[in-house]
Amino acid sequence: MNRNKKQLFQQLTFSQAALETFLTCRRRFRYRYVDALYWPTVWGKNEESLRELERGLTFHRLAQQYYLTGQVPPVGESNLNQWLAALAATWSRQDGYSYYPEQELRWQSPWGSLLVKYDLLVQIPDGRLLIYDWKTQAAPLQEKLLTERWQTRLYLLVAARCGRNYLGLPPDAEVSLVYWNPRYPAQRVVIPGKEKFLAEAEERLSQVLAEIQATIAAADYPPVGVEEVCRSCEYRPLCQGQITEELDPARELGLEDLSWQLVEGESW
């Protein structure tokens, strides 16, 4: 790898969205992260989905206020009021717990730099560390899909490998990730950060980052060539000379991925 390409890889900080973009389409990864051709995340024309997206982002901001102040913020929209009431009833603030909403952690792993942003970290008096991630899509949570996502791997891995030390917890402190959707307050998906899971996540992460490094070295970014992916890609006009079809961003990416694209649009 020549010096410039090696420096490029070393300068990149990888989020879940970056890894998933690379694994979905290397050409799209090149446009977004190597060429830094940033497109706004609200390119879709589906007004209803954009309203849902904005409602979800607003919920995340209001949840942050709740855990910072202990007060449920007043809002004028009935759906948001119901969601916040469900949040406060299901995950109420507890005396003696330490709450860190919208917490960002960076980890310089042996294979590359990683960046995660948690909706909520909670340090429990018994030494456990809980990660909460809010989902607001209309569909119920699916444990199998969530377990296999890069979000789950990175959230647990970064929390275990550097979050414990950052918060002054012992190196063997128990770490778990909780997914929750205010539309379905009785449902939750809890994924423990067991060492076997973390070791497998590290192995897969090292493989993917090695693939990215080799791809950058070879400057070879083939398109995925799958119509269902290409037709709604924001880079379709550059790649195929065709217009991008209407995209439902909340369905295609998920709120957490859209939030990451906002972060990446400013920092890559």
UniProtKB/TrEMBL annotation:
Q: Name one GO molecular function term.
A: DNA binding
Question: Which key words tag this protein in UniProt?
Answer: ATP-binding, DNA damage, DNA repair, DNA-binding, Helicase, Hydrolase, Nucleotide-binding
User: What InterPro entries does its record include?
Assistant: PDDEXK-like_dom_sf (IPR011604), PDDEXK_AddAB-type (IPR038726)
Q: Which GO terms describe its biological process?
A: DNA repair
Q: What region holds the PD-(D/E)XK endonuclease-like domain?
A: 13-98, 117-240
- Keyword DNA repair in the entry? The reply is yes
Under what name is this protein listed? PD-(D/E)XK nuclease superfamily protein
Organism of this sequence: Carboxydocella sporoproducens DSM 16521
